[in-house]
Design goal:
The chain is α+β, with helices and mostly antiparallel strands and 151 residues long. The chain is 40% helix and 16% strand. Bound molecules: uridine-5'-diphosphate.
């Protein structure tokens, strides 16, 4: 079974709005395994590395300011195809284009308040997990329910 991992960050807007629980519940209910979780106010250096691909774009400063404005709930989730499925569960970047039933489609309206981040590829997941977490913060454990989730 693939042990793919993805990085998810519940953004400051969703932490303030009390959406940590509902978002985690969706990934737990789907069957994915939580490997790491922490509340962190990311500093500018971390955010510049995280959003490196957007450096120089008009929205970059606002984005970095917003993401550092309060606690973010950073997580590592594991399971089969979790990068692609996690993105599908999030919905489109702009919540107004996100289908109902997705996290952004159910909880968001504005692009700059789009609730949750998820890695967009296996490579960026590896980069982001390494950026946000120390190896000792990532837990390795077995779940008895595994056989009821995977055939
Ligand atoms: N963003 C923004 N204005 C834009 C484009 C993006 O505020 O015109 C923000 C938005 O919150 C988005 C983040 O920048 O989630 C990163 O953009 P990206 O295209 O990587 O989208 P994502 O991978 O988060 O769906």
């Amino acid at each position: 079974m693939s042990q793919e991992q993805t990085f998810l960050a519940i953004k400051p807007d969703a932490v303030q709005r009390g959406l940590i629980g509902p978002i985690i519940t969706r990934f737990e209910r789907r069957g994915y395994k939580l490997r790491a979780i922490k509340l962190i106010v990311p500093d500018r250096s971390l955010l510049e590395k995280h959003y490196d691909e957007h450096k120089g774009k008009p929205f970059f400063e606002k984005l970095v300011g917003f993401m550092g404005s309060g606690p973010v709930c950073a997580m590592v989730w594991e399971g089969k195809d979790v990068v692609k499925t996690g993105r599908a569960m999030l919905g489109a970047t702009n919540p107004l284009n996100s289908a109902p039933g997705t996290i952004r489609g159910d909880y968001g309206i504005d692009l700059g308040r789009n609730v949750c981040h998820g890695s967009d590829s296996v490579d960026s997941a590896k980069y982001e997990i390494n950026l946000w977490f120390q190896p000792t913060e990532i837990q390795q454990y077995d779940r008895a329910i595994e056989g009821w989730i995977y055939e």
